[in-house]
Structure formats: structure tokens, C-alpha cells
Hints:
Helix content: 40-55%
Largest sheet: 7 strands, mixed
CATH class: Alpha Beta
Distance between the termini: 41 Å
Order of helices and strands: EEEHEEHHEEHEEHHEHEHHHH
CATH architecture: Alpha-Beta Complex
Radius of gyration: 18 Å
Shape: globular
Amino acid sequence: MKQFQGRALRWEWRDGVVEIALDHAPINEIGTVMLGDLERFAAAIPALSAETAACIVYSARKEGFCAGADLRELYCGAEALAEKERVSGVRNFLERIHAVANAIDAAPFVTIGAVHGVCFGGGLELALLCDIIVADKMARFAFPELRLGLIPGFGGIPRLKRDVGNAFIRELLLTGRTVNATRAHAAGLGAQLTAEGEALKVARMMAGQIAKFDAGTRTAAKKFIKPVPYEELKREIDLFCELFARPTVIAALKKFVEATDAMPYLP
């Protein structure tokens, strides 16, 4: 499938490059709708691989790349279930999204994230699936999950550990504060820092260069330098579910959902 129009994203294949545009109001939150569309893309990877050199993931929303998990959907779903069923439900969601994430992470073509604006929580975890992150200078990154009594659950910490030092990871995770694109780039989170509004343009130039290389060599190089930390990812799911079972998490989600701030996930 070389073209797809979903409810939360769309993609198009052209000249060996797939471009995925996230486009789900307000800021591409990852819930069942986004997950369903991502599953469609993951299922298409084997068919796309033979003719694809690179894949660019970007946001069509002016506000940013992705604000993270759909916490309102998470809270409403949890409230409707008994405690044991809550944990079972969230585990099922996490296992689905980990399956998609692992498929994208291990895709034989090169993935490039073109990031602008908000890139928080699950959005940062989505960006970390990409082999290369190109960041607009106005991009901001954060793992605010500890504010809810949780840890990142979509594979963020094991994947971030492949790219940056532990001191930066601890600060990002344990403070929940946002980091600007300049700081993130200096820490090694982004490969390139661009002028405002230029991330997608630079990503397209990169994809054009990548397409010139031999496919077999490109695939072998990616597999060698970017192992997928499967065992650690499994442990992350277990820890997330253990934390999610606590009443304090539901209370924190309730507070978030009922907040009147325009952007309650900001520090």
C-alpha cells in the first residue's frame, strides 16, 4: 500500500521515500485512533521495504509533533473498569503499541523524525523510534510522566539510552521539565538542529541522500548500529502496569482531565 488516509495520520510513497503525516487534533495524542493507524503502517512495512530507502515522520499540526498519550481516553477507559480489568486493559494497549514501535524501530529502511513544537511523553517515544531526529529550533522535549505517578510506557527510556548519556536521561525523567531543542541537540537527542519551519525540508534532503546508497548495505548498517532492546522493553511494560494499578495514578489522571489550563501537561 503506497498511499493511506486514516483518521489520525496519512502516508504517501514517492521515489523510494514514505512520508507519514501525523494529523489528529489537538496535537496528535496517541490513543486507540492513532494506534489503529500506526498498526496499519506497521502491517505495510514488509510490502514497502523492497522499494523504500527512507521514511519521514512529521506532524501536520502547527502546534507540534505530538503531545503524548491520550490521557483523557486512558482515564475514561480506566474509570469504566474494575481495578483488575484496568491493568489488563492498559497492558493490552501497551503490548499493541510496543508491537508497532518494535516494527518501526527495526524497519529495514531509514526512519527520520522531523520534529517541531511540542514533543512530549509518548510523542518523544514516537520520535525515538526514528533512526535520525531532525529538530526545529523551536521544538521542546519532555517526559512528564512522573507527574502522574507513572513512567514512560511506549519504550522511551530503553530507546533513549541508546542515544544519550544517563545524566541527561535522569534529568529528563526525574524532573519532568521540558528541554529546548538546543539543549536536546547538545545532549545527542537530535542529529540536526534547523531554523524554525525547516525540519521537514532538511529531512527530505537527508532522505534523498540516503536513497543513493545500496539497500543491502544500508539495512545491514542500521541493524548493526541500532539494536532493539527487547528484554528491557518487556520489563518497562511490567513496571508501568505495576504503577498504573495504584489509586494515586487514577487520581492524577482525574486531575489532569479536569484541569482548565490550555496545556496542563506543561511544567
